[in-house]
# Entry
Amino acid sequence: MTTETLLQRAGELLAPFAKGANNPETNRLDVQIAASDLPTAASALMNASWGYLAAITGMDLGTEANELEALYHFCEGAAVTTLRIHLPREGCPEIPSISDQIPAASFFERELGEMLGVTVVGTPDPTRLFLPDDWPVGIYPMRQDFKQEQAAAVEPDKTPERGWAGNKFIVPIGPQHPALKEPGHFEFSVDGEIITGARMRLGYVHRGIEKATEARNWIQNLYLLERICGICSHTHTSAYSQGVEKLAQVEVPERALAIRELVAGLERIHSHLLWLGVAAHEAGFDTLFMYSWRDRETVMNLLEELTGNRVNYSICVLGGVKHDIGAQHSVSIHKALDYLEERIRYYLDVATTDSGFLQRTRGIGMMSLEEAKRFGTLGPVARASGVKRDVRLDAPYGAYKRYPVSIITDDRGDMEARFVVRMKELLVTCFTIRTIVDNMPGGGIVTRFPRKIPAGETVSRVEAPRGEAFYYIKSGGGESPTRLKIRTPSICNWTSVLNKAVGHQLADVPMLIAGMDPCFSCNDRMVTVRRKSDSNTMTWSELREYGIKKYGPRK
Amino acid sequence: MKIGSIFNDVIKSFFSAPVTEKYPFEKPETAVRFRGKLSFDPSKCTGCNLCSKDCPANAIEIVIIDRAAKRFVARYNMDRCVYCAQCIQSCKFKCLDMPNDDWELAALNKDSFAVNYGKDEDIASFMERFAVSKAEPVQEG
# Structure
């Protein structure tokens, strides 16, 4: 189906609820609806299998307009449908939950509640997701009148509800936990070794990036957003520049777009090889971990040669790229790819034949096509369950029209399939990179870019190594954005992990979590808390006393 | 299914040289495009301050002593710098550069991170003015 017919279909489905509709861009449909119609409108889209919920953007329109806005973005192919709901700013704004129809919405709803002060009626878990437990009650950081001083830490009223009531055995894991090098807190209720329920808490690396973008100019934001993630930094700069360039109506040179895709490809290789090592480590296969990370150095060195840095490449600028790719670079790219391709084939063989390893991967974390669709899963995890979803293919951006990629799917849906999909994807990526290097378009690499961006809003989608990264950018016509919403793939994939963990053994949890290649830094973005004195030295016995006093004696 | 399909690689690796670099005994060569410590050429500067406007980390500031006589002092905070090279991109007169050979920047003292670039007499006159205002201690780099 073409984008036009998709949008037309969405328009027909939403017509009974629409209070107004328009097409802000050729691939977008914007429908205003009443808050009370939201669940039925979402059901209408879901029942017709129209797309998936990409993100919920909460926005404060300011004291003058005296309104809040909640935008529910649904994506299907290249088409983006936005349900726009106006809410009163004063009093207690309420919006009904859509978690029943769309399980993935529950994370976004928690975020909407804590950041903007919107009560989501009927959401399964209204507790905080990102903000710390000692964040003051009734202070909402994404409101426009929020001030840093308001974020002073307070003693929480009561000990935050950890776990569930009732006669259950709960195993808490994290925030500092054995499986991953990043902090996240999980609670698994277990019956013996078998998991019966799962819950999570994020925000331990929350840095307030969405809010911080509003105080920086368009160029400065590029480098702030690059630092969202230490692995897919190029994804964020390219998604951001692509959106801002669309808003500014600047035509980026073809050669610059090709270089962006090339770096994105190399980044994908680096990210998947890193994941291969981490996942092998979780499975207790440290030999594979060491070897894959050794080989990853090849692509890291290549990235350093092309861009000047191993991680934060900073090759994107608004209107193009910083560095050109010359003849000497194409020689080293081909040479590095020769080696990497051979190694990737070898790892593919190891991941599908080593009997010890297969015991940890085959049949573990099974997710059917229907489940993957229902949970809104993205990226290689979704493709390993047979979902043909990839922004590079659905909505070709940048140079992906010129150098298309083929999509790799697998219908088995277990951990092994996730290994296979990622490794095969790397072989495709290597092939694409070679094509780009050999058929580089001529011309300049950067074009002039205005300092002020005309007022407007846009959606920018990019396929990160982990799945789709979604940017919503709104400009008020000034030197900095009015609102920037970032939705990274990891947060969509959590829903599937938490749901799929049920019924597995506790020992499979590290593998399940590692299987989706989570990135906590990407999830956690928003607000920092400054305390006057937050350092405290305690001896072991003092700490014990403190614990007993805080949580009460053992019952 | 095979048992230990990675053994081949293990045996091969037994006989290959270690990949560890012997830094600091052998200084590795950095990539040509690697971004090291910033350098500044006051003779090309016009004092437009676009570099400091676009710096995401507030690491650079151009102090204008006499615009007509091209007397500028660049105050560079090495510890704030994120080495993104946007200042070089923003500068239309190519007076900034990040050479790849100057990268061993760790120090035991934070004072050495505040660097002033410019002609000696310009820095001296700037420091004099600065000492009067006594805003914060700055050391010559």
In short: Chain B touches chain A at residues 1-6, 9-10, 13, 19, 30-35, 53-57, 82-86, 89-90, 100 (CB under 8 Å).
